[in-house]
Structure formats: C-alpha cells, structure tokens
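Our platform keeps sequence and structure together, in a single record for each protein. Such a record has a labelled line for the sequence and another for the backbone structure tokens. Nothing more is needed to write down the fold, since each code stands for a local backbone conformation. For reference, a complete record is included directly beneath this paragraph:
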Amino acid sequence: MKAQLQSLVLQALQSLRASGQWSLPDPLPAISIELPKQKEHGDYATTVCMALAKSMRVNPRALAQAVADAFPGKGLFQSIEIAGPGFLNFRLKPAAWHLVVEDILRQGERFGAASPAQADKIMVEYVSANPTGPLHVGHGRGAVVGDVIATLLQWAGHDVTREFYVNDAGAQIQNLGASIHARYRELLGLPFEIPEDGYKGDYLIPLARELQSKHGADKAEATPETIAEFARFGARRLLDRINDDLLALGVRMDSYSSEQAMVEAGGVENALQTLRGSGFIYPHDGAEWFKSKELGDEKDRVVVRSDGRTTYLASDIAYHKNKLDRGYTRLINIWGADHHGYIARVKAAVAALGLDPGRLQVVLTQMVNVVRQVVDENGQVHAEAVKSSKREGNFVVLREVIDEAGRDATRFFFVMRSAASQLDFDVELARKQSNDNPVFYVQYGHARVCSILRKAEEDGIPIPPASPEALAPLVHEDELNLIQLIGSLPEVIQNCAARLEPHHLVFFLDQTVAAFHAWYQKGAADPSLRVLCEDRTAAGARLLLASAIRQALANGLTVLGVSAPERM
C-alpha cells in the first residue's frame, strides 16, 4: 500500500509539473510515506510537499492542496487532508484494504517477496568458526543471524550465496594438532602436556582414541609431520561435527572456502603482490606492513612477519580479494563482537584493492549468556548465567541448547533481539509451552488461525473466492487495522534486508499475533463480531481475512527458518 501511495503522489506531482503551474524540480525527491503518530490523523501521511516547498520557496500548504486536487485514484480514499505546515494525510476506504487481502491470498507463499529492477550478487559469510572445537552458543547466534539475513536478502530479490570460511591454516591448527597428540599420548599411558595455547576440552579425547585405534603407539613421538597429520585429521573431524550442528540448527551453507587451500594455491601471495604493486605495502624492521592507516584504520598493520610467516590479516585480505574476484557486488560478514576492531583494517584492504569499501558490510553479534534456573543454599530459585570458556573446554555447546530447547525456539531466540544487543538465552523459557515463550506465542497464533479455518470446514461454512463483494463486510476498525498490519509484511522484509536487522520481523510477527488475538477475543464477547458468526456473508469475509493472517504469519516464520505448525 505504501508503494502504491508513493506512485500516486509521484503521478500527482508529475501532473502539476506538466501543467506548467508549478516549477517542480526534475528529478523529484524520494517520496516518503509514513504512519501518522496518531491514528485519527489518517492511515498514512507524507511530508514531500514541505520538503519541496522549502527548495521552491512556495507555501507548503498551497502545494499540498494542489497535489490533493491533482491526486489520481481518489475512489480509494475516504479523505485526503492537509494538516499542519503541509502534511498530506490519507485515509483509505475499506475497499482499498480489501484489495490488500486479495493480493495476499493471490500471492500466497510468495507474499512478501520482491523482484527489484536490479538485483545484487551478494556473498553472506557467517559462522566461519575455527575447526578446533564444537560450536558454542555465540557461534549459533551468528549462524542464525547470518542465515536469516541471507534469506531476507533472497526475499528482497537478490542473488545470495551463503559461505563458511574455514580457518584451517595457521597457529591455531598447529595447536589443535599438538593438543590431540597430547591426548593421544595420555591414552597410551605416556607423559603428556597440552600446550599453553592448546585446547583442553574433553571433546579431543574421542579424536585421540580414533587415532590410537588406527596407529597404535606408532605416532607417540611429536614430530612436525605427526603434529601436522593430527591437525589435519582433527580439523576434518571437527568440521564434520560443526556441519552436523548447523544442520540441527537448520543452517545449510552453499559453499565452503578453505584458508589452507587458498594459501597453497598462491592466493595470499597474489594478493600481497597486488598491494605491493599499488604501493600499499612497505618494509619496516624486517617485516612487511600494510598502509591501512591512510585508508581509515587506526594504524598500519603487519602482513608478513620478520620470519617470513604471513599474518591472519594477509589471509583475510586474500580471501576478500577472492570474493570480489568471484564477481560479488556486495560482501556481508557476520562476525562476533570481539572483531569490532578488525572492521577498519579489512575495509582498508578492500579500498587498497581499488574497490569501494562500502561494498563490505559487517554485522557484529554480541555475546549470548545461557541462563538456567538454579536453587541457592536458601532454597530460592533464581536465574544464573552459565559461564563459558572455549579454551578450557567448559563452554556451552550449541548442540546441547538445540537438543534441550529445540530448533525453532533456538532460532527464534537468537534473532528476537538486535544482534548489537547482548542476549540472555533462558533455556527454561524456550522450552515452555505457554504464551510467556515468544516463539510459542507466535506459533500458537498461527495454529489458532488454522483451527478456525478447520472449524469452518467442519461446520460446512464455505470460504468464498476473494473478491470485492466477498470482502465488503470487513468494515470494523480492528479488521481494517489487521489488514494494514499484515499488508506491511513486504515492507518489513525489505527494511530488514536493507538494514540487515532480522529482529524487526520478529516484532512484526509478535504484533500481528497480538492484534489477531485481540480481534478474536472481541468476537468471543460480541457474537456479531465472531469469525464464525451466523451471518454467512460476514463469516466468509472474516475467514478470508483469517486466511490472509495465516499466510502472513506462515511467510514470516518461513523467512526466520521456524516452522508454522497447524496444531499445537
């Protein structure tokens, strides 16, 4: 509806310009359609006349009146009013809202999806956890945020690839190999010591046992070759486990990119040569430095150490060059909040490669605290955050949360707050079968609409084809407000995709279910407002509205990767 209003306002302005009575600029500014702060001011409003009048040096109310007089499609409006210093307020007739219901039911499962004039080719890179241990809940939040952002961008009409960057090279993989070897020696009954920077979690013991079964005591000596072999083995096995966890979370990647493979193929050296050729790398104290400070970073960064080893940044530069070389027009990275300081240097790398750093967007996900109900020594129950530490091995494993709370609740909880906000994940709340549980509340709303539709079928109340005549009985304020709300789903999806903020879709679902419940409860109190009322014409219209509500809820849940149950 907002898009249609924008088109109608544009047509009116173009008509005024063509008449020669108003010297309107060409091109015209973007036309913003907003919801009035107070419902009595109408359904929608625009300030475009105020913006134009200032630059044209004319009376904004006079311009607003001229636009109102030239407005096409007046049959859809109860009123077009000029308010204040030049607001244009629009109040639609019920028949206009009925067209929205028709549109939702006609589009069905594709309601909310868009087909832009020009689609971007977008790489969304997320998870990208080092294959040195199982995924923890922080990884899980990034996985779901990235997955839903990718889906939102697809619904917005873009060509999207989901990618996992596997950090399978460097010191952390060497430490993994040494840590597994220490556990291997432990199983052999030999003296062992886990490296100070190694991984102490018990999850390495099954890997060491598998190697013991294969090699016996033949690999007891910690040679560089043995450590490298154990590291490769451990990284493969742990990546398999990571993928299993992601599948349990409903996350599927389109592609994987290996750091080790990129290094072996000469990608890192190629990227460094490119920067050397453009003068962005210089020698200092036996090392090579990237001139990142002049491109927005707080200081220059080492890319090749004095001993000849490349840094993590060098690999990241090569990886982002690889992404751009593959033809992606936009790059979106989902990183943990601890990577905040890394954004400027990677954007500097993109700029040094001769590209617009604005093509790279980074979404930072804040910490997740897993909260459980505990009983203290006084018998009092209170919530307590479970502490985590990946190095020590007592981290909160993602799979445990999925198994306990379920896929739907886990996904929903991870995106129901802004990624920029710290999240307390209350496991007990996520398991509750009550309206206190946010995902249960929304899913139950969908199931309740389905129940109404089933009851209508059982009672032999037909749902007519959607048409102006069939929808004409929908005139109650609550019904029209519901239509306005569910009709905003395409805009919600577009805004979430543009801002890379999935939590607004959760707000939409919660708001829609609350409005539906309020409408339904009014029907319980007033028989004339019931969905399944005695007036079959009114019942048919309300069943069409219920069908549209169900579709909007189902589509929103689908974008979140959460199921829309028909019975609960």
